[in-house]
Each structure stands twice: as structure tokens, then as C-alpha cells.
Design brief:
CATH architecture of the largest domain in chain A: Alpha-Beta Complex
Low-confidence stretches of chain A: none
Shape of chain A: globular
Number of domains of chain A: 2
Strand content of chain A: 15-25%
Mean pLDDT of chain A: 97
Number of helices of chain A: 10
Radius of gyration of chain A: 21 Å
Order of helices and strands of chain A: EEEHEEEEHEEEEHEHEHEHEHEEHEHEHE
Largest interface: A-B, 60 and 60 residues
Oligomer: homotetramer
CATH class of the largest domain in chain A: Alpha Beta
Helix content of chain A: 25-40%
Structural class of chain A: alpha/beta
CATH topology of the largest domain in chain A: Quinone Oxidoreductase, Chain A, domain 1
Largest sheet of chain A: 7 strands, mixed
Number of strands of chain A: 20
């Protein structure tokens, strides 16, 4: 069967590979789930792997199948599998457990090991192919009513984990409830975070470079947030206007913004960094002032990455709520379909070049 | 009665003031506690107030009595007071509640208000005098067996709060248990944090500039920690040697070190900043790299300041444990007594000039 | 305007009362919300108040307007109100805060005071009337897509609080995740709890007296639960079949069942009692055996009642998820509409006599 | 070497057995710790095993060495052992891990498995012998200053776990702080719980059958608690006097008292059952009333048993605090020493017959 693959560490090596179709028995103890792939989203990680920046093939291969944002339909399950059955729509987690105590409790997303095993990223083939098999432990059901949003399950899981982590960490304050949040960045993560925070009753300011009108601004505002272009107002000016925020979610990956955000946070507030770039930039930071404000205001900064089974579940739950509270909005993120695995060059071109694309994804099959 | 006071915002205005002796009835509803002051510690905050950097007098006064680290003996209590009685040794919290939700649950240490009411610091007279009266709500009992350490109650409460906050925040990771901790700074807070972490079974590296032998190094090692001089090894080199730490407590107030520490923290690790300087320094920071490592490692940074009733209690409990697990060590922090309120110039001189002083404190009265 | 009221402590005193229409300015500081009532649900509490068992009129009245399960549409808001606006569908919480620390943090549902102020139950008029005004703090928005389920907001809030409390309490076990839950009782609370647990991925056995087929059984099974009639299998037999449950939610109010359930719970398991009767029954209990199993198995029992703003919000969120995961199921609980306040006798008759009614509610107005 | 053993399931089979001296290499990977036994406490569990009620020998043996409350001195450690060294005083945990998720995170005390592996109780030899070897993971250091109390480490660990569990569970209430606690039972667990709660600042009423004066009453009152004899006042009468308690710790093992205590608990309160009897008693319980009060008051009941490494550590910390806050009190619990393993009959006689014994323990060796 066909698969979109790269030769890791070889820039621009994206190509069509051939793999044997997997069997449900490839997973022992009757726990296999065979999934027919329907849609796969791609993001900056796929682009950077194709740029040769990181990623490794599975043992015994010289290529790595891309794709970690999957949506498909179950074709067959092993005899021990109970929570999904043929015909169910599903998504699948990305990272596989190592051996740390966190891995042993089903939380490989916070593994303390240095080597990650991640489908489509490192040491395991991804989902940009026709079929895959995995252990039922990693396969998450998507209700039919969310079929049109299923390909957003993985980015939504990452957004949900970030928000859950900060609410958990802020329980240190016993009665903390954020009133005002800033979301820096209005890409897919920024917009999905905007949705999650709106569902939790928070007043949200979604902040990005581009001026209105724009699709990003429209989506943010359809979620009931206020869109702010940094061309018209800096973070500092905005904070004068709104009062200092209780929560900031950084989703630009621009480290200068990540640190600038530290300067406008309110007392007892929290920042979550969710995005990165692979760069080596150094920036002059007002270290004395940030140090002082962080201490006197009992503030908190958190990094968050990846997601596990429970975050996929809660992410899907939040997509569900989104359809009831803001019907029809989330699907507007799905800007840029590419039809068929054969169109891998077009997929990569959209990913690299398109200014308008909020989400590039491949329609692998009908279903 | 005598009191050591300053004229806030007037550099080097420390002087001897005169106040009427307070009465237990100054606090309404029978909740007053009249305390005879025995010892009062001073620290960088007192020095900076005398430098004119911050601090405000109480309404109706043009001077502010200094001193927020108190130890005394109860002389009289109002009829509603149950948890202390005349003859009890006591300490007293520093900040008084405002009106935020945190203040209303007894946690003024995390008030979300901008104005603090703090005895000896802002808008309320301090303890560097002969007697004080306060509401029983703020008066904390010290057992007689800790009489010799009572003047450390306030710094210990601050150290305890910082550690409690980070353990609470790290519950986001469900099963986090730090194995290796770095403490940067070996002043009183650094050493007390060293003690607390040792009591929790953590392997501690206490890191400061000075080379061994030194009193700081001796105390850290008597607590079972390893003392490391940055003259012999940088944080980065140390991390290569020990493995990246799970926890870093920053107690130098040097913002360059505060940010440098971010670069050596391990996965899922946490840093607490506990100290500040009043400067305006800017430093070039490897922002891309810190951003990336913070996200991929799910790391956490916390600021912590002040302490409340429960932290004073747990601080005193930790001093008690210290006496059993490391008998006779903690009192070595009490390097520099000054006898009598009249010696306020000597007190300030030791605070400003002494290189050897770990803790300057005034013996106000016998008891 | 019309209102359905009782004379508390006078059995069967239900009657039509007359009240002046409230004004948005009845609430100070511009925080009033004037709501036109659309539907109001009634339950055993209303029946027991009409039986004269409890309840008190507001000061200055000799009658109490019934109804604590409200759904309506906003007609007017004061100038300080931001989170709802005219035309929004809303529900409203039941209990109003006293002065305990729990009341002060927005959690009157766990007040430690003995006297409750509850709309339609004690000391405050209820919602079985044409209009009401309340402080915006207690008014919760319902999205238009849930308009058909809005009258279930209050019972759902109670169900949600119960589940949230037990998950919070079980964090004492760090990594507890229930696999199998029993829900005893298939009235509205039992069925809504079934939904919530199914949304959390738990395998649920909903257990009630009646044999299949029945509407209760159909709803439970449409939520993906297994319905078990106690006529065919006792709790003990069921536990032999399924393994001992990790979680039991008791929603019959039958105290014999409440205690029987304690005997079948698994290690580390938890029971929540959510229902009561006003009786004085005594039952012979295997106290030694329950005591032993509770200790050796580290088990937990929780009582839960009432709900607050955040529980209403999460209850509405769970209703939203229910529409996506199990479309069209929840509305089947709404068995028994009564048209118009004038039909108060019919309302009470259905509440008292109907064997088939899962939910009796009054259609007060169109909207 | 000598050991005190029983033939499980054979009533009154206590005898002196002979075992080879273990070697530090009996534990693989250099993790062995060889401990010379100094003192071993015995309790009702040992008595009931000798009564033939439960307990099993290790595989390959027809006898079981008794003793699970150990205190000793390290003689030798394997090369991988870091946290203890020869000459250190130590105690050792009782239960060994199975395979459940709780066992995998170091919490065998809350294993969800049905079979326990417990030294001196089930399937593993106990400590009533001259030497033992165990994995360093289970060996807990006792500071020399607590040498005289070391034999109380195990019961204190059990008391500490119970208190920690209830404080953790009550975090469901965000700001819960118990003011008044009842401790039912003034045996060793009741008294140690009294100490722990007093150290946390709670007003404690320790309640037992016997009238004052008595050693139990003296110890409770030396901890600052109020001793109440049920001969002079019932729980219900006491609650009228003190107000309903926020917390009750049941340590009689009398199931009638365990259930009676449920009737006097205050709103939002919690009960912990820590003790059991092996009986089959049934008691008539006011089930309707308890059910109603439990629900309306949002109350909680917890069972707690056993303890793990961290509880031993915190238990030892609380013994340390006890020596500072209430010097010399705790050792009064150690009423009844028996000298030498040869005196096993005397040990069992004291355990069975002595009315005055609070704690029977064997002095195995000097050290």
C-alpha cells in the first residue's frame, strides 16, 4: 500500500513509499485494531522533518512514513478489544510508552526519558498511508456527529492537555479562576485553545500579527473571543486596556513573544508555552524586572507538549461542546484539503508556501 | 517605648523613634494578643527600605518602624483568644489581608491586590520595638524547645511556602517525586530550603559563589547536602556530573542566575524563584533554546513570596524536625546578634557591610 | 402575575398565588437579570414540600412559590451584567450564599451553615411563576441548541457535582480511574449520572427494580450502559458477574440499598449517595463486615447535594456532549409536560401518582 | 538464628523456630540491606494470627515468623545502596508490591489486588528474629535522636497514612480546615493520631471507655487533647457540648462505634475508619437518618489500612515533631517490654491478657 515518507535528515526527501498492508494480528494478545485511514492532517513538524531537522526511521527502515494527526474507520479488531468495533470512527495517539514511572501510568506525554517513540516523527511509521494497526490502548473513538472534525483530534488533544496542565498546576492557589486570558497566535492551536477557554467561561483575547478582516479573526470572534492584531496594539498596550490577564497561552513559537508575554501577566497568573521553533535565537530580556514580578506576584510558567489517551478523549469532548455552543465554527479551520496520497508534493507545497492555510490535510479515502 | 524606624523614601534615615506601649484592647472583639518582643531579625528588605527604595509609613505617621521577623513572649491576651496564653513564645505573620478572594480564605500571601499591608514594610509598623499587639489570627506559637531558633520563624515560613507551592503545582504530574535538587544561593533562605528538602529525602546540591571552607558550606553539608562553589564548577558542568536536577530553588536574587538555571533543569522539572533585586538589568537570554526545552520537557517555573499562618506553622514544624535529624545545625545560621534597640546603627552596619553575617538580629529583651 | 405556591407545613396546600412582576432593578448595583420563565421541572422535593414535610416561606409571606428547576429567556439586564443579554436562554442556581468560608468562595452548595436559602424550597420564592429577577452571579446561559433540554439543567448540575466530588476525592489515590460503575436507580438523576459516566468512558450498569422492556432501560442502553433489573439479579450476584465495581452512584434514596451497595464495592472504590427519603427507617446492617472491608480496601463513601454555578456550567456541557455522542436520547427523559401554571393540580397529580413519569415539568410560556 | 513463629491456621501455635542468618546478597542487584533486629512491637494482628484466624506461611515453609513492627541497626549494605549505611538505625515497611498500577508507583498500601504479601502476616516471614535482609527500597532511616521511639515507626506510619488520606480526599472542598476532631479509641493508634492532629493545630477530643485517671488519659492530655470517657458522656452528648466535629478518626475497631460516629459528624465532615475486628456482628443502624445527613451535609467516610515508604518517613517526622512540641510524652506509650526472643510465651501472654499494656514489644538485642 502507498505511504508518504521521507528519508530523515535528508532535506526535501518527501516521496511515495510502499508498505505491506498490516494485519490486526500484528499486535499480540488479541489487542490489535486495524484502521482504514480517511484523513491525515499535517503541520510544522512534518515540514521540519522534511527539512531534515529531526526524525528517525524505525529500526530496519531507511525511510519514515509521515503523519501523526489521523482520522480513520475501524475495519477489524482483535478478540480482546472492547471499546471500539468495526465501523467506528477513530483517531490514534502519537507517542508510545517508554519505561519511566510516567509511562507506566499511561502518561507517556510526560515521559522523563530523553528518547521519544512517536508515530510519524521518531522511530515509528506515521499515518500517511492506507491502513494502520495499533494496540487498542491507543485508539480513541470519535462519534459520527464529529466525523467532519475528526482530523482535528490530535491538535485538539495537545491544546486540551496544555489547558488541563495549567488548571491542575494552579490548584496550588486553591480558588484560582481565570477571568481574562490572552492567546498569542491564531494558528490551529491558538484557535482551538480559544475555543476551549471560551467553553470554560473565560473572556479571551486572541492575538496575532495580521490585521482584520481575516479568517483567523472571524473564527476567533465566532467563538466569542476578541481578536487583536499586534499591528494595532502591543501586548503591553492591550494589558493597559483590559487589565493584566490571569492566563496567557503562547502558541506562536516565537520566543521573543514568549518572553514578552511574561511582562504583562497579572498576579497569581500563569503562562503556558505550547509552541517552539528549532532556532538558536538569543534575545535581550528584562531579567531583573521579570524575576521581581514573578516572585512578588507568585506567578507560574509552564511548558506543555504532546497528549495522551485521556487528552484525546477530552479534546473530542471539547470539539463536541464546540458544535453545540458555536455550531459550524470549528470546521472553518479545515482550510486546505489535498486529495489522495499521490498528491504528496502538493501537500508539502501547501504546508510550506500557503499563507492562507490554517490546516492542510490529506483526504486519503472516502468513508 | 523605643522603636527602630526610618523615614520611607529618605535614604539612610534609620533612627530611634518613640511609640506608646500598645494595649491588648487595641484589637476589637477580645482577639488581641500583647507580645513582649525578644528578638527581631533583619534582612535585605530592611536594608532596602533604609536605602529609600520602597516602603510607606502607616497613615498618620511620617516614620515606619522596621522589622518583620519577630520572636517574643505573650504578656496578655483578650478573652476570645484560645490558642496562645501568657508565657507562650510566639512569632507573628507579616502581611495583613486585603479584600481579594485569596485574602478572604486566609491567604493574603497570594493576594491579587496590588497594595500590600505588611508590618515593618508597608503601611504598618514593624516589630523592632518593645511590645506589639496583634489579632490572634496572626500570632503563631513557637514551642519552648525551639526558643533558640524562634527568630528564624519568618524566613523559614517563606522557605516552606515556596517548597509547598512547587509540590502542589507539580501534582499536575500525578506521581512526581524529585530525586535531585539544586539550591542556588547559600544565604539564610538557601540554607533553610536545603534543610527542608533534606527532610523530604531529596539529594541536595547547595550552590554559591564562595569557595570552601566556609560556614555556609559547613552548614549545608551538616544538613547532608553537597556544597558546590561556582568558582570550581558552573551549573552546566554540575548538571553533567549529577544529571539534570528535578528541582531548582533560586535564592540568590541574581536574575542572570535565575535564567541560567532554566537551562539545566531536567524533564518535568520545576524551578522556584524566591529572591529578587530591585535592579533594572537586562540580560541576553537563549530564548529559543529555553522555549524549546521548556515545551518539550513539560517544565515549570514558579515565583513565590511571603507566607501565611499555615506556612509559619509548617516552617516551625520543619525547624523542629531539623533539631531531631540535624541537631544543633540550624542555630549556626544565627551569626550576628546586636544587643538592644539602641544599637540600631550597628544593626544597619552589620546588615550592609558584614561579609560573614548569615543572619543579623537584634536581642531586644531577655526572656 | 401567577405563581404556583404552597403554605409550608400545611399538607396539600398547593394553590395559585398572585405576585407583582419583579423589576430588573430589584437587584442592586446594576446586576439584575429579568427572566421570562419558559419551563419549570418539578421533583420529589416539590412533592414533599406540598406534603408539609419541610420548607419555609420568605420573610413577610405566608406562602412559598414552588419550583427550583428553571429554564427561561432573558428579557432585560442591568448595566453591570456582561455574560448574558436579552434573548439568551438561561437557567438559574437554587441556593443563595450564607456567610461560611465556603459561601464566600462561591460554593454555597457546600455551606457549613445549617440554614439554607433555596429558591422554591426554603425562605426564597421559586421559579413556578411568570417572571423572576436574580443577581447575574446566579444566572447561567444555555446555548440555543440545548433549548429542548434546558429544563434539565438543574438536575444535571446536581448529577455533575456528585461525579466531580468523587473524582476530586479519589485523587487521594493519585492514579485512580474507574473502569466499572454501578448506578442504582434509573430516575432522572440515575439516568443523567449514567450519561455523565458514559461520557467519561466508564462501563456502566444502571440498576433499578423494573423489568425490561421499559423506557428507563431503553434510555440507559441508548447511552451505552447495561440495564439490570433487581428482579432478575441482586447487586451481589451482579458483582460476581462483572467483578466488583470501582464506583457506585446511589440514586434511589432507599437507605437499605444505600447500605447494601457498600457490600459489593471493590478495593479503592467509592460510593456516592445522592438521594434521600425523609423516613426514619432502621435496618440491620453487617457492620463488622462493612467496617472490615472498608478499612482493608481503602474505600470511600461520599454524600452529595445541591450544585453551584460551575456545576450548572459543566452540567450544560455534559448535556451538550450527550447530544453529540448519544443524539436524541436525553430528551426522552422529558416524559410528562403540563401546560400552563393554571394546571397546578394536574402537575401535582402527575408528580404524586404517575408511574411512568420520568420528568414532570410545566410549560409556562412559549419562547 | 532464633525466630518467633506460628503454624498459620493452628490456634496458639506460637513457638521458637530456627532460620539461617540471611545474607545481604539475598537481594539481587546490590540492593540488599542486612539489618540486626533490636526491637519488635506486636499488636492485635499478631494475636489473631496466633489465634489461627488468618495468615499464611511463605512458600516452602510450614511456619510463619511473626512481627511486622521492626526497629534495627544496619550491619551491611549492597553496593547499590545509598540512603542508609552500616550503623544507621532503621525500620522497614510491611507490604511488598504486587502488579496493580498502584503497586507500580510505590503504593502497595493501596494495591487493588486481593492477595497481600506482608512480612510477618501473609506469605513472607516477619521481623521477630535476629537479622533480616530486604531491598533498600523498603528500608527507612530513623534518626538516632528517635532511637527510643523507633519501634513505633510502623504504627505511626499507619496513623499518618490515614490522616494524609483524609486531608487529600477533603481537598474536594478546596478550603477545608478541621477545627474539632474526635478520636475514638485510645490505644496506640488512637494516641498517635491524637498527636498528629494536635501537631496540625486541631482541637482534639480523645474518647475511650475507661474513666480517668488512666495512662491513656494522661498521654492524650499531655498532647494537649481532651480525654473523654464514654462512661461519663456519649458521643451525642459530647457533640452537643463541643459542636459537631469536622473530623472523626475511628480507632476502636468496634463496628457499632464506627457507625454511631457517623451520626454526630458535622457538615462537610469526614470520618476515617482505621481499625477492624474479625467478627460477624450485625447492628441495627438508623439508615434513613444517616443517609439523609450524609447527603445534605456533603459528608465523607474513608477506610484506611497499611502504609508505604513515604508514610513511614512522614510518621518518623511526626514522631520528631512530637519530641519538640510534647517532649517525653510519646515514650509513655511503650508500656510493656519483653526481653529476648526466648520469652515468646510471655510476649503472647501480655498481648492477650494485659489490661494495662498500651504497647507490647520485644527487646531482641542491645544496640
Amino acid at each position: 500500500m502507498k505511504a508518504i515518507a521521507v528519508k530523515p535528515r535528508n532535506p526535501n526527501s518527501v516521496h511515495l513509499a510502499d508498505l505491506p498492508k498490516p494485519r490486526v494480528t500484528d499486535v499480540p494478545n488479541g489487542r490489535g485494531v486495524l484502521v482504514k485511514v480517511l484523513k491525515v492532517g499535517v503541520d510544522a513538524t512534518d515540514r521540519e522533518i522534511n527539512d531534515g531537522l529531526y526524525g528517525n526511521p524505525p529500526p530496519g527502515y531507511d525511510f519514515l512514513v509521515l503523519g501523526h494527526e489521523s482520522f480513520g474507520i475501524v475495519e477489524e479488531v482483535g478478540p480482546s478489544v472492547r471499546h471500539v468495533k468495526p465501523g467506528d470512527y477513530v483517531t490514534c495517539t502519537v507517542r508510545r510508552p517508554g519505561t519511566s514511572i510516567f509511562d507506566r501510568i499511561g502518561r507517556s506525554d510526560i515521559t522523563s526519558e530523553e528518547t521519544y517513540f512517536e508515530r510519524g516523527i521518531n522511530l515509528l511509521h506515521g499515518y500517511l498511508t492506507e491502513y494502520y494497526v495499533d494496540d487498542a490502548e491507543f485508539v480513541v473513538r470519535v462519534p459520527p456527529a464529529l466525523k467532519h472534525l475528526g482530523v482535528l483530534s490530535e491538535p485538539m488533544s495537545v491544546a486540551d492537555k496544555a489547558i488541563q496542565q495549567v488548571y491542575e498546576a494552579q490548584k496550588r492557589l486553591l480558588v484560582w479562576e481565570p477571568k481574562i486570558a490572552y492567546v498569542t497566535g491564531a494558528g490551529q492551536i491558538g484557535l482551538l485553545v480559544t475555543l476551549i477557554l471560551r467553553l470554560r467561561g473565560v473572556e479571551v483575547f486572541t492575538i496575532a500579527r495580521g490585521a482584520k478582516p481575516s479568517l483567523k479573526a472571524e473564527i476567533a470572534e465566532a467563538y466569542g473571543a476578541t481578536y487583536v492584531s499586534t499591528q494595532s496594539m502591543s501586548l503591553t498596550e492591550l494589558a493597559k486596556h483590559t487589565g493584566k490577564p490571569d492566563l496567557i497561552i503562547e502558541a506562536t513559537g516565537n520566543s521573543a513573544i514568549a518572553f514578552e508575554a511574561m511582562s504583562v501577566l497579572g498576579h497569581n497568573g500563569a503562562i503556558v508555552w505550547t509552541s517552539i521553533t528549532g532556532g538558536q535565537r538569543k534575545v535581550e530580556v528584562a531579567t531583573d524586572s521579570i524575576n521581581l514580578n514573578w516572585v512578588l506576584g507568585n506567578k507560574l510558567l509552564l511548558g506543555s507538549v504532546n497528549a495522551n489517551y485521556r487528552h484525546f478523549e477530552s479534546g473530542i469532548s471539547d470539539l463536541a461542546q464546540g458544535e453545540i455552543f458555536y455550531p459550524g465554527v470549528t470546521q472553518r479551520i479545515l482550510t486546505t484539503p489535498v486529495n489522495g496520497l499521490d498528491n504528496y508534493q502538493e501537500m508539502m507545497r501547501q504546508l510550506v508556501d500557503s499563507k492562507e492555510a490554517l490546516k492542510v490535510y490529506v483526504n486519503v479515502a472516502e468513508g
